[in-house]
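Hallway conversation turned thread

IA: we were arguing at lunch whether anyone had actually written out TIR domain-containing protein end to end. Turns out nobody had. So, for the record, here is the sequence (1107 residues) and right after it the structure tokens. Reply here if something looks off.
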Amino acid sequence: MDLSLKEYNSLIRPLGRTASVSELNLFFNNTISYLKNLVYSNEKHDGLDILTNICDDLACVRAIQLYDHPIIRNHPIFIYIGRTLEVLLMKSNHLRSIPMKKCEENCFYSVSYFIAQLCLYHNEPIQTFYGSFSNESFSVTDKINIRDESINENNRKSNKISDKPNLKITCIPPSAPEARSTNKILFDITDTPKKRLFSNEIISPLIETEEIIESKIPSNLPSKRYQDVFFTTSFLNKFIRSIDDLSRNEYSSYHVKYKVIDRLVRLCSKLNIINELFDSIISCLCSKFYQQIFLTIEPEQIRLSPKQLFFIYQCTQFIIQNQFQQQEQIPNLLCQTMINTTKIIIEYIFPMNDDELNSIYFHQQDIALYALNCHLELLNYLSLTSNGRRYFLQTNIIDLTMNILQQDQLIVNACEHEELFHSDIAVIVHTIMLLYNLAYEKQIFLILKKRDFLNIYFKLKSSNDKSIKFVCKTLSSILNQDQIHEENEPMKLKQAYIKHLEEPTEKSKDKTVPDIVRITRERDDNIKLAILNETYITNLSRDVEELSRNESSISPAKYKSIGQRVRVVTKQETKEVESLLDPILKCLNSSFYLKIFENIELSHGKVISGIIQTNRSLATKHIFFMRECPEFLFRHDYKRRKEIANSLGRKMLEHTKTIFNQHLSILIGEEGKQPVDEMKAARMIALSYHIKVLNHFTLIRSIRKEFLSLSIIEQILKILQDRSLTDRDQIVNEAKTAVVEQSLILLYSLGQEKEIIGILRKKNLFDICLKLRIVKDRIIRFVSQILLTLLDKDAHKHIHEPHSLSKTCIEYIDKAVKETRKSYQGIKLHRLLKNLEIMTVNDTFIECLLEAKQGITVFIKCICIKYFDEKDSDSENKEMISRIHNSAVSIIWRISSYGPKPISKLKANDLFIDQILILSKGKTENTKRAANGIIWRLGNEDKIRFEKSQKKRNQENKTDDDQVIEPEEWDESIPYDLLISYSNKTNDKIISGKIYNRLITKGYRVYSEKSGQNRFELMQKAIDSKKPILVCLSSAYRASTVCMAEVEYASKQSSPIISVIVEAKYDVQGWLKHLIGGKKTIDVTQKKFDEGFINILEEIEKTNSSN
């Protein structure tokens, strides 16, 4: 390495330990100065080496904490780094003619890694597995010099070592210097001996103070995001071409281009930059390299090469994990290719000429099985919709999958393991999942019913893996039915499977489990998948009612068993389990509820040394009354909520005085400062359970009024005001966290009453929330922030950690939308949205919402909530949903002003468009105004996002030779009678061409736009002539940005639109339906073409006569 780079190494290391903004800024300034004045030549590459070293070092040193500072964010060095990556991407697209040098490959890899770190982690310091970093610098000797009185023991956080003195330092006087200096040293390369002279120095020897640096920086720096700095339009275009290049050209398996593109695709997926890459990733999956890459996997290969990893894993996961604007087209684009590839992969891994494949063979093929699993996962994804399943009908996919399941040794290996991510288990699971997804196609369902799966079930019965058990039971229950009805059932099964995986597994299993316990576990597992019948609910109701009457004769095992069964039925629909509600109410109304708080007991299970248990430390009886019964009540009392609140709710308020008097003292005062043992932790968890019950009843206004005459509010405020609540690092003790969360939610619910919110303001709740919103618990921060918004409408001006807050808001909204009562964890959806209306005035918070994957989607879900059926609805429900709509429309109106991305997402959702059109004609004036504003904004979006569909236009250019209709330039001198607009899908072109030719023979002068670079501009001129435009509608037409821009422009110009459907069973919905004005469409696919053509002629004449 050059001497200059060696000197650079000594300069960057001090930055890594204790850098400041001014030092990092000075370092960047001098680096740019060096790069600007560097004399470039073919032999020297100092500039690339400098950038490589900078990116390698700064991606991991502690200076990463400083990158969020506006001075650093706006530094031009990031422009240099971004443009360097852009240039290297461009060069990587011409590797056949201009190969990369080694220094360029190194820089390509390092720069991409640094950019990924900046964009992905939002420049926040990352805590390691072992804990957080420390700012303190220690000397080489790790033991304290006991004679040195200058050492601050509190800061060092070490005990005195008086019994065994450190012999290294015993004789050293107290005034001796430290072994390693902790002072900052700024090296001067001008003093380095034998230094090769450069025209400019890398680092100036002059040291500028922080004050001078700050004074040179403008005060009004823009708030930049790193992804906006790096992911420019120019960069994305070159990146897309790089992915396209991988689908056309082949490089060595470990070429750096595969590593960099893989990293950037993964980064784009996490930043939600996905629609731009969609076509390129599809091209890679459809290329010959995807099929061939499986054949390059060798026996005993340890890991996938970068090339294999990109095609097999990254491309497939990109499609599976994201939602695209062209979502409906994925089966059409991928299914046939993936099905054809399946046969080649399975025949390669399971050769037909081998009668028996032993365990050694499968051990050697472990990586090949992993690759097969990735492919099967993609097939499962494609089979989730009826459109995708139809592609499997005319294939031998059943035989191929049965070939996998008939591999005896593979099944034996799968039964020996218990990890889902083991390749043997994953292949078996995804193969069976594919079968039960395909079973929802009637023809395949009939084929599968004729196959003998009993032998496979019998072999898999001994498996210990719960995933295998889940898929086997699911497939068995499907094939036991007489016929299949629901088309969307595979999506429901997918969600059930994910939920099944998320359930906590047992950490250890006792091989000598009693038979009665084993039978109970198997029964509970079966219930999770079976439909709960009336007999089961009746028996459970009887058992629960017995617990409300008896106490002494009930064993802990019975409490546990009944509690587990109640937990299972809690997840079911209310109409199936509502008969259990009365026995649950009897338990909560019984005297046992208060008794368990008066006598807290710990579980008699095995205690792990050194670990403080939480809810598991409570006895099973306490868990049943405190958690299981209330959770059932929360989910299923909706229809009787007011009746239950007036009886049980008031009783719980009476119990609160006793419970608080007994347990509140452990959280406040001197007792609150004492260490938390297991009993104390159990009491805190019990207290949080009771406050959660109070939260549930405060959703009813009459119960909220009752709090005015009680001292509960003052007692809750005492908990939150106590100094022992947080430590110096603003961390709430784990055992106290649940109490604080529920207490804040309780105050938030009570704050909906004007009298109570006035009391809370006088009690300085605002100051309490200001302190709590910076603690290291996201739920506490979230509730504190919305409480601040409730207390002061100007609180939105200073939002702490908007990234984390926006994610929590999205989580709460998403879960509340799915609940019948439209609330989650005691927070009602319409109240939360009302708070967000205020918070979205903050630009930074809106940007964070837009960055999140579900940021816009959750608000669309709120808009799409429909009123209940008239039989089940009441005025309160209608008012609640109306409030949700009002707030959601207002929030979307603000979000829609932040660039074209939110606009494109809104327009792509047909259900949203239909609902917003309904709201624009509603009764609420504010909602009508905001809904009409959204429609106006959608309609006045830029005429087309033409730059972002470059590849699609190139594909359209390729189809010019196959045009059925001969295109022509618009000529104003020719008196055309009408225009015709259609997509470039083959079927659409054939039918549109047939219509075009018939019209020509009838004497009409028809203008057809010319496809290619200027297609839209030419069509725009034609539409300006106010001639009727005949639009040939299909799913491909709806998916085409060019076609949608044409019909949108025609609608804006008030040109007559004649709608013709050219795709069988196509239903016009959403934005397209709005553009054509809801006019009658002519379907030429349902009847004879001649009859449809006559209708077209009639519509043309009617249009001409009206004009």
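OS: looked through it. The radius of gyration is 34 Å.
IA: good, adding that to the notes. DSSP finds 56 helices and seven strands in the chain.
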